[in-house]
Amino acid sequence: MNAFEYTFLIPFVPLLGFLIIIFNFNRFPKKLTAVLATGFIGFTFVVSIYTAWQYFFQMGPVNGVYPKFIGFDFEWLKLGDHLSVHMGTLIDQASVMMLIVVTTVSLMVHIYSIGYMHDDRGFNRFFAFLQLFSFSMLSLVMATNVFQIYIFWELVGVSSFLLIGFYYEKPSAVAASKKAFIVTRFADLFFLLGILLLSFHVGTFDFISLTNPENFESFNLSGYALFGLSIPALALILIFIGGAGKSAMFPLHIWLPDAMEGPSPVSALIHAATMVVAGVYLVARLFANYALMAPEALALVGYVGAFTSLFAAVIAVTQIDFKRVLAFSTISQIGYMMAGLGVSHYGGEEGLGYMASMFHLFTHAMFKALLFLGAGAVIHAVHTNSIREMGGLRKYMKTTHITFLIATLAIAGFPGLSGFFSKDEIITAAYQSNPLVYYALLVVAGLTAFYMFRLYFLVFWNTEPHYHLKPHDPGKAMLIPLIILALLSILTGYIPFGQFISSDGQPLHTHLHLDMAVISTLVSFTGIALAWMLYKKPSDMPQRLIASASTLYRWAYNKFYIDEVYLFVTRNIIFAYISRPIAWFDRHIVDGTMNAIGWVTVTTSHKIKGLQSGQLQKYAFAFVSAVLVISALLVYYLLNN
Amino acid sequence: MTYSIISIMRQELGLVVIALLVLFFDLVVNEKNKQKVFLIALALFGLHTLAGFFPFEGGNLFGGMYSTQPVHILMKNVLNIGVFLVLLMSASWLKTPQIANKSNEFLMILLTTLSGMYFMISAGDFLMFYIGLEIASIPMAILAAYEKFKSRSEEAGIKFLLNSALSTGFLLFGLSLFYAAAGSIYFDDLTRTLSQPSPLVALALTFLLSGLAFKLSLVPFHFWTADVYEGSPMVVTSYFSVISKGAVAFVLGILLFKVFPVFEGLWQNVIYTLAVATMFLGNLFAIRQKNIKRFLAFSSIAQAGFILLGLLHTDNLGIIVIIYFVLIYILSNLAAFGVAQAVYAASGKENIEDYNGFYKTNPRLALIMMLALFSLSGIPPVAGFFSKFFLFTAAAKAGYYWLVFIAVVNTTIALYYYLLVVKAMFINPNPEPLPTIRSDKYLRSALFITVIGIFLTGILSPVFEYIQAMVDKF
Predict the structure, then answer these.
(1) ipTM score here?
(2) How far is B194 from chain A (nearest CA, A)?
(3) What is the pTM of this model?
(4) Which of A526, A557, A588 is the last residue of a domain?
C-alpha cells in the first residue's frame, strides 16, 4: 500500500517483548531477559533509523515541503456516523525525529540497565516495564489522532507510575509514584476536556487534517466563548495544561523531583529524555493550531515555559541531592523548549523558535540521559545521593568523569558542543520576538552553567570524603552507553536541523548568529567561572554567600515551598473548608434538623424503635423535600419559558 | 396468535418457566439432592442467556401494552449476563448451613425480580410498567432480609420495603397525573397528546422521576442505600447495586427518550441537577467509608450519577453509551464484589483495613480487585475508561461542557478513594494479612469471566458495534 506500512513494527515489537517477559518473569533467567529486551529494542532502533533515512533522504521534501504520511492505519471504534477512532502510525518530521530520540535513549538505557540492575531481584520485572514504556511512548509519538495520543498518554503515565514505584518496599518511592500519577492525571483531565472541546468544533480527531492550515477556514469555531476566550484558545489552553502536567511545568512540576525515587536508568529514559518532553511534543504537534488559531494560547505557553525555566534553575542552585539537581535542571530545560515554541510563529524564518525547540529537545535528550546515567554510575559507586558526601571522584572514575564533563559542558552551552547550538537558536528566536522571554532565558543560561558546574566540581573535585570502599568506574555494560551518548552530545549539534524539522514542512536555512553566540557564551562562561571559584576547592565562600542571602537561599532550597502550598491547599483548604464543613453540616444541620423532627415524631415511632429510631422518617423527609425542590425547579423553568 | 405470543415474549416466558421449574424441583427432590437444583438452575439460566442472543425482530402485544425490539432484548441480555455472574458468585453462600435449606427459594425469588425488570423494560404503557416495577421491588425486600437470623439483614429488608413503598406511592401518583393530563396511559397516546409542557405534566414528571431516582439511588433519594446495602447479604447487595440499577437506568433511558422527548427542556434540568448532586455527594460519602460493602455501595451511587450524563444526549447515541456503560459497570463492579465475597466467605472480614497486605497472600485476587477498581475509576486501557469516555463524549456532544468538567473532576476524586483500597492491598504493611483464600470453582469462573470482560469489552470494537447495530434498529 504505502512505503511506511512496516512502521507498525516500531511500537509492536516492544509490546511483544513486554508480553513475553511479563508472562515468564518468574521463569526466564536474567541473561535471557536482557538479551530479549535489548534485542527487541535494538530491532526497533534499526527500524526507526531506516524510517528516518527513508523519510528524510530517500523521499525528501515534495515541492519543497516535507509531506505527512499515515504509515499504518486501522479503524478501531466507530462512534456515531461522523466520528471514528483510528489507531495507526503517523510519519512526519516531528514524529520521525522523536522516534530517533526515543529508540536511541531507550536502547542506551536497556544496555546500561543490564549492568545497573544486575543484582536486583526485580530484574525481569524492570525490563518488562521498560518494554511497556517504550511501546507506549513510541505509540504516543506516532499517534495519528488525538484519541490515540490520549490513550498512550495515559499509558506512559501508568508505566512511569510502575517504574517510579519500582522499589515498592521503599515507602518514599511508593509515595512518589502515587504523587506523580495523581498530579499528571489531574492535568490529563484538562487535556481530555480540551480534546473534546476541540474535536467537537472541528469535527475530526485526525492530526493531519486538524493541523492543516488550509482546513482552518472550514472549521466551525465561532460562537460561544468562556472567560472571554475564543473556543480554540480555550481548548488549546486546556490541552496545554495536560502537556504541562506531563512536562512538569510550573505549578504542576512538583511530581518530577520526587520521581527521582525510581532507579537512575528510569530517570534517564522517562524523566529526562522522553516522557517529560511529551508536553512539548504535544504543543509542537498542534503547533499550526496554536500559532494560527490562538496566538494568545501560544503566548501563554511561552511565558509559562520561561517562568518555569527560571524558577527551576534557581531551585537547582541550592539542591544537594545529586538526582534532584538534575531533575530541576530537566524542568528548567523543558521550560526552555516551551519558551522556544512560545516565541515562534508559523512558517518560514519566523518559525525559528519551533525548529530551535525541537533541536533542543533532541540534543537535550542525549546529554540529559548521559547526565542521569553518569549520576547512576556515581551513586552506584558511592552509595549515596547526597553531593555533600561526594568529592574528588575524578581520580577513581576516569571514564565517568570525562563523559559527565562533556555532558555538563553541553548543557552549559559551551561552544562547539550540541547544547550550545540548540540553546543559541532558542535565544535568537526569543530575541527576535519577545525581549522579556529573551532576558529570562539568558539569565537561565548563566544559572544553568553555574549550577551544573557547581554539581560537577562538588562531585568530581573538592574535598574527598573518606570512602569505605574505593569507588571505581562501572563495568562495560554501563560504560558503553556513557561513551556513545557522550559522542552524541558532541556531534548532534552539527546536524543542520532546520533542514529536517520546521514548523511548516519547508526546510529552513539557519546560520549561527555571531552576536547572540558571543553574548550567550559570555553568560555561560561567567556561570562556569563563578562555580569554579566557589566550588572547585573547599572554601567557606559558599557558606558566607548563603548567609548573606539566607532568606532567598532558604526559599530556593525548599523549592519555594510549592509542595507545602499544595499540602496547605489540600489539608487546610480542602479538608478544612470543604470536607469538614460538609461533615459538620451533616452532623449538626442535617442531623440536628432530623433530630428535631425525630423528637416530634418520637411518640409515634415508639413501636418501630428497634430500627434506629427516626432514621426512616429522615429518609422520607429527604425524599419529600427533594420532590418539592424538583417541582419548584420545574415550575420556575416553566414560568421562565 | 398464541404462537406469536410465545415467540415475542420468549424471554419473559423462558425466565418464568425456569423460576417455576426451580420451585417445582425444590418441592419434589429429597433433602439430599436439594443442592443439585442449583446446578439445574444455573444450566438453564446459562442457556436462557445464550438464547437471548439469537437474532430476533421483536413485536407488539396486547394492543401495545407490551412491546419488544432488538434494543430491549439487548438490555435484557446485558442484565442476564450480570445475573448469571451473580448466580455463580452466590454458590458458596447458598451452601452455608443457615441458608442451605432455603437456597432454592432464593434462586426462584431472584429470577422473579429479574422477570419484573424484563416487563418494565418492555412495557408499552404505564400499567405494565408499574406491574413490572412491583414484581421487581417487592421480592427484593425478601432478598434483603434473607439472612433473617441476623438483625441487620432483617432491618435491611423492612427498611427497603418501607422506603420502597413511599417511593412507589409517589411514582403511582405521578402516573395518575399523567392519566389526568392525557386521558391515557399508553406510551403512544402520551407522546401524541402531550405536546405542550404544562404545570400538570411538570408535576407528573417530577413524581415519576423521583420514584425512579429512588430506585437508581440518586442523591438525595439515596438514603436507604447505605443501610440496605450494608445489612443485606453480600450477594444481594451486589444484585441491588448492579443489576437492579442497570435495569432502572435502561428504563429511565427508554421513558425519557421515547416517551417524553418533547419535554426535554423540562427533564434535562432535573437530570442535570441530580447528576451533579449524585456525583459529588456519592463520592464525598464514599471517601469516608471503612466497610468494603458500604464503600462499593457509595461508589455505585457516584457511578449512577455518571449514567445520567448519557441521558442528556437524546438520540440513539445516548442509549448506546448507557448500555455500554452499564455492561462494563456490571462486569467491573461484580468483579470487585466477587473478591469481597471470596474474602467474606473465607474469613468473615469486610473492612478495608482487613485488606492490608492482601497482595502478599492472595496476589491473584488482589490483582483482580485492582483491575476492577481501575475499571471503575476509568483508567485506560481497561474497559471502564472507554465507557466513561463515550459517556463524556455524548454529554459533550450535547453541549454540556460544564457537566463534563464536573464529571471529570469527580473521576479524579473517585480515583483517590479507589486507590486507597489498592494501597491497602499492595502497600500497607500488615504483620498478619488474611490467609490465602481458595474460593470455589463457581466464584473462580465468575471472576474469570469478569476479568476477560474488563479487558475485552473496551478493546474489542465489535462489542460496541453490536450495541450500536441493535440500538439503531430501535
Answers:
(1) 0.77
(2) 15
(3) 0.66
(4) A557
